[in-house]
Target: Hydrogenase expression/formation protein HypE
Amino acid sequence: MTTRHIREEEVLERIERARRRKPRVREERITLAHGAGGKATQTLVEALFVEAFRNPALEALDDGAVLGVDGARVVFTTDTYVVSPLFFPGGDIGDLAVNGTVNDLAVSGSRPLYLSAGFVLEEGFPVADLRRITASMAEAAARAGVAVVTGDTKVVERGKADGCYVNTSGIGVLDRAGDAPALGPGSVRPGDAVLVSGPIGEHGVTIMLARGELDIQADVTSDTAPLNGLTAALLDAVPGGVRMMRDATRGGVATVLNEVARAAGRTVVLREAAVPVRAPVGGACELLGIDPLYVACEGRFVAVVDGGRAEAALDALRGHPLGEGAAVVGAVDDDPSGLVLLKTAFGGTRIVDTLVGDPLPRIC
Amino acid sequence: MTTRHIREEEVLERIERARRRKPRVREERITLAHGAGGKATQTLVEALFVEAFRNPALEALDDGAVLGVDGARVVFTTDTYVVSPLFFPGGDIGDLAVNGTVNDLAVSGSRPLYLSAGFVLEEGFPVADLRRITASMAEAAARAGVAVVTGDTKVVERGKADGCYVNTSGIGVLDRAGDAPALGPGSVRPGDAVLVSGPIGEHGVTIMLARGELDIQADVTSDTAPLNGLTAALLDAVPGGVRMMRDATRGGVATVLNEVARAAGRTVVLREAAVPVRAPVGGACELLGIDPLYVACEGRFVAVVDGGRAEAALDALRGHPLGEGAAVVGAVDDDPSGLVLLKTAFGGTRIVDTLVGDPLPRIC
Model:
C-alpha cells in the first residue's frame, strides 16, 4: 500500500511539473503539423493563444466556451474549414462546415441554435460552386435545426487561397432541465466506460482517396453529419451519467482520448477488437500505413459515461440512425499515468500517443 | 400637393418593384469586386446567401444578428480579415480583427462581450509574426473590454493563403436599461441628422500607401479602434434619439448612407464641406483619383439621430477621445428617392452612389 502510494504521488508530481512547464513553440515557421490537431497544434495553442488571451473560458480548452450572457448559459465555438477537395463523396465543405460547428456545440451538451458563415473566396472561383456550397450549408442547417444568421465574404487575389475557405462560428444554449454537472474530462473517474458513436475514420479516408493521388479504390463516403440529435438522446437516456463527449475530428479518437487521460490524470484502456472500423476503411488505412485511431471522423463522437450505465448509453446511441454502429471500446483505469493504452487483438499492450506530424493535411 | 403625391406614389412603387426583383449574380466567376462591400457584394449576398439561408435575423442584413437566447437578447456577428499588408502604420491584422468585430457589435447598440478567433495560416509563416498578431489582438481585446474565449487554427500549404487570415466572430448583449426601440435604417425619419464620429478614410489610405506600390508619401495612420465606449456614450447622451449606427468600413461612408437611404426610402443629403477629411488623406485621395467617401474607416461610424438632438449627440461624441473630430455632415430629407445627394462646396448637387468595382482590395 505504502509503496503504491509513493509511486502515485511521484507520478502526480511529475505530471504537475509537466503542467507547470511553459509550453514553447520551438519552430521558427508554421508547418502543416501545427494545423493537424495533434501535438504541434496543442503546443501552438497553449504557447501562443492561451498565453496571449488568458481567461477561464479559453483555458478550459474545450471545443466550445461556456459563457454567461445576461442569465443565459451560452456555448460559443468557431472553426475554419479548408478541406481539399471542396467536394467529396458524402459531402462538401458546406455541410462539413455546418455539421462540424453544430457538433462542437452538441458535444458540449448544448442545444445548437445559430451559426455565422464567413467566406474567403479566391478570385476566379466559380459562382456555381459557391451556390452548390451554400445550398449544401442550408440543407445541413435545416437538418440540424439551426439558422445561419450572419455572414461575411472576402475575396483574395488568385493564388492567395484555394478556391473557398469557410469559417462557421456557432452559439448553443445550455438549457436542459436539472442542474447537470459540467461535462468535461475533469469529471472522468476510474470505472467509467468509453464509447464511440459509430465506425471510425471514414471522413479522413474519404478525403485522402478523393484527392486521387493514391492508386487505391475503396467504397468509402464521409461520415459528416449533425450529432445534436444523438448527443441529446444520450443525455436523455443517462441523465447525470455522461462525463464528457468530444467529436473525434482532427487527430482522431486517439487524440481525444489522450486529452481525456491527461486532463483526468487517469489511464484510458482501449480494446482494439472492440473499436469499430469498417472493412474498406481498415483496408485503406493498412495500405496507407496509418492507424484508424488517428483518422478524423466528422460524424462520430467519443463519450465517457458512468461504467454502471454503459449498457443504457449504448442502447440510446444504437437506437438513433446516426449511432447504429456505436460500441463500448474501453474503460478508464485508476492508474494516474495520463496515458492511453491499447490492448491489441494479439494480447499485447501498447501506448497510443497523441498525433505527431500531419499524415492527412486539410481534411476539414 | 396632388401632383407631388402622385409622384411620390410612383417612385415608391418603382422602389417596391426593384425590391421584389430577385437579385442575380451575372458573373460566372468571383471577382475582387464581390469582396469590396459595394454593389457586387450586395448582389452576391442577396442572391446566394440570403436566398439559401432565409431567416428574419439574416434578412435584416445588419452587421450583427439580433437573437433571443433563453431570455437574453444577444447580438452575433462575424468577419474574416484578409488585409494586406498584415502590419501597417497604426495597427495590424490582429487589432483590426478585434476592433472590427467589436465595432459591428457596438453599432448594433449592444455591449460586446466575447470573441472567437479562427486562424488560417500559410505553411512557412513566421511564428514571431503570429506572436506579434496575437499580442496585438490581446491588447485590443483588453482595451475593448472583451475576452477571446474560443479559437481554431488551420494551416494550408505554401501558396494557398497569404501569410495569415483571421476570422473573429463576436457576441454582444442588448441589456441597456429601458426598452430602447430597435436601431436600424428602418427607423430613420425625415428631419434626422447624419453624423460621422471623426475624419474619414484614414484606414483605407494607410493600407494603400503601406503597400508601397505608389510613389506617395503621407503622414497617415490607420484609425483602427474599438468604438464600444463611444457608441455607449452616444446612446447614453440621447436616449431614444439614436436611429441607427453603422461603422463605415468597406465601401466607406457613401455605401453606408446608400443602405440607409434605400432601406428608409428617403433621401440623405450630405454637405461636402462638412465631411471631415484630414489633409494628408484628402491629398492622397486626390492623387489616387478616389473619393474619400468610399474609403474604408476602421474606427469611425455613421450615426443617424433625431434632428432636434443633433447638438447633444455631437457633444457626446466630441467629449470622447475617439470622437473628437465628429461632425454633423447632413440630414434626411422626406423625398422618397432612396438616394444619397451631395451638396458640393461649389453649390452643385450630385448623386453619391454605392461603391462599384473594387478600387482598394483587401483593406480589411
About this structure: The two ends of chain B are 48 Å apart (CA to CA).
